[in-house]
């Protein structure tokens, strides 16, 4: 069981694991409202990748991973989703120089 | 309990609402062939028609619901599922503390010539 702290790394590892064994890998999403915690897990019963978060900023990452799995699992052809997708860019606020 | 996509999303909403104070909600996604994982005598004889679907299961430890997502329903299901997550996941906002630059009380006096 490997715990991740970066969503980009987790995304890459999850994608790799799924495309290596598409019929056996499953994606699990756990939410506890009392703790305010979300845990994502991708496993093929041999290797397991996990990541946990409690921040609302990570919701876009969670949605991205969900979309990847729903689209690629329901599709016959897996090659279209195996291509590298661009990384999510954090919107940085432009800081004006103080005169 | 196997349901249609719309029924599943309705029940999923109810699961989230009923587990607000205690308990957790689990949602699992898996790719299915329509065939059992282990080869049996019956699978060898029949012609294998591969119809790939996404099996989506949800539970709160007590109630179990499931649905099949097919290729034609992907976009619709995705949009509705994402809205359910948006409304039901109450997560904390990360506070990023800005580093305060200290202004010195005694500014540096440079190039000041004493007369």
UniProtKB/TrEMBL annotation, chain A:
Return the SUPFAM superfamilies for the record. Signal recognition particle alu RNA binding heterodimer, SRP9/14
Keyword annotations: Cytoplasm, Ribonucleoprotein, RNA-binding, Signal recognition particle
Location within or outside the cell = Cytoplasm
User: SRP9 domain: which residues?
Assistant: 7-67
The domain of life is Eukaryota
Has UniProt tagged this entry with the keyword S-adenosyl-L-methionine?
no
Query: Coiled coil: which residue ranges?
Result: none
Q: Which InterPro entries match?
A: Signal_recog_particle_SRP9/14 (IPR009018), SRP9 (IPR008832), SRP9-like (IPR039914), SRP9_dom (IPR039432)
Pfam families the record matches: SRP9-21 (PF05486)
Known function: Component of the signal recognition particle (SRP) complex, a ribonucleoprotein complex that mediates the cotranslational targeting of secretory and membrane proteins to the endoplasmic reticulum (ER). SRP9 together with SRP14 and the Alu portion of the SRP RNA, constitutes the elongation arrest domain of SRP. The complex of SRP9 and SRP14 is required for SRP RNA binding.
Q: Tell me its family.
A: Belongs to the SRP9 family.
Protein's name according to its UniProt entry: Signal recognition particle 9 kDa protein
Give the organism the record lists.
Answer: Anaeramoeba flamelloides
TrEMBL record, chain B:
Which keywords accompany this UniProt record? Cytoplasm, Ribonucleoprotein, RNA-binding, Signal recognition particle
* Location relative to the cell: Cytoplasm
* GO biological process per UniProt: SRP-dependent cotranslational protein targeting to membrane
State where it is primarily located. Answer: cytoplasm
| One term under GO cellular component | signal recognition particle, endoplasmic reticulum targeting
Protein role:
Component of the signal recognition particle (SRP) complex, a ribonucleoprotein complex that mediates the cotranslational targeting of secretory and membrane proteins to the endoplasmic reticulum (ER). SRP9 together with SRP14 and the Alu portion of the SRP RNA, constitutes the elongation arrest domain of SRP. The complex of SRP9 and SRP14 is required for SRP RNA binding.
Q: Any idea what this protein is called?
A: Signal recognition particle 14 kDa protein
Which lineage is the organism of this entry classified under, starting from the top rank? Eukaryota, Metamonada, Anaeramoebidae, Anaeramoeba
């Amino acid at each position: 069981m490997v715990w991740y702290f970066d969503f980009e790394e987790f995304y890459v590892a999850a994608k790799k694991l799924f495309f290596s064994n598409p019929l056996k890998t499953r994606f699990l999403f756990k939410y506890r409202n009392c703790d305010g915690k979300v845990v994502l897990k991708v496993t093929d019963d041999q290797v397991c990748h996990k990541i946990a978060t409690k921040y609302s900023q990570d919701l876009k990452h969670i949605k991205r991973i969900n979309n990847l799995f729903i689209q690629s699992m329901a599709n016959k052809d897996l090659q279209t989703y195996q291509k590298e997708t661009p990384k999510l860019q954090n919107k940085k606020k432009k800081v004006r120089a103080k005169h | 309990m196997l349901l249609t996509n719309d029924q599943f999303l309705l029940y999923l909403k109810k699961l989230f609402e009923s587990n607000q104070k205690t308990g957790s909600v689990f949602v699992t996604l898996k790719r299915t062939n329509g065939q059992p994982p282990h080869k049996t005598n019956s699978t060898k004889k029949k012609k294998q028609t591969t119809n790939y679907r996404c099996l989506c299961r949800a539970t709160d430890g007590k109630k179990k619901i499931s649905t099949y997502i097919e290729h034609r329903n992907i976009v619709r299901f995705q949009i509705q599922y994402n809205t359910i997550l948006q409304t039901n996941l109450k997560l904390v906002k990360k506070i990023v503390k800005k580093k305060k630059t200290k202004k010195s009380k005694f500014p540096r006096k440079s190039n000041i010539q004493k007369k």
